[in-house]
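Minutes, structural biology subgroup

Action item carried over from last meeting: produce the structure token record for Translation initiation factor IF-3 (Candidatus Planktophila sulfonica). EB confirmed the sequence was re-checked against the source entry. Recorded below for completeness.
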Amino acid sequence: MADEIGLDLVEIAPEANPPVCKIMDFGKYKYQEAQKAREARQNQTHIVVKEVRMTPKIENHDYETKRSAVEKFLKGGDKVKITMKFRGREQTRPELGFKLLQRLAEDVKEIAFVEFAPKQEGRQMTMVLGPTKKKTEAVAEQKAARAAKEKAAEEAAAQ
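Output recorded by EB:
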């Protein structure tokens, strides 16, 4: 029957009694499955864990620079791992690093939440912050802001 129509006979469930077969265009079916898989891959979001390293004896300006980098990563929808490195005698005062990590978490609390609380492992203490907005929302927001900026630039050039 399949040959008469010019289609393929595809075995669907070989374990069934009797086996189940379907008459279809197998090439077209494979193409449609590949299209669905490609579409699903395009809609996936890849969450990246960015890392920021600092020491307990960080100066205010350097701290602000690191904080702004953390904010940029979080606004982009990525997770951020903050690593506090202890060198020499700094290891005897881990509470200084803990306070600094808590301060950073407090500074970015409107755009992030603490996913993993500060935890000391040997000579370093780590904390992971997650964004409050999903990556897809953040990317859409960035595209909208970029489009508005381009539109404003075009209007300014037209005048």
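Discussion: The chain has two domains: 2-43, 49-136.
Next step: EB to file the record with the rest of the batch.
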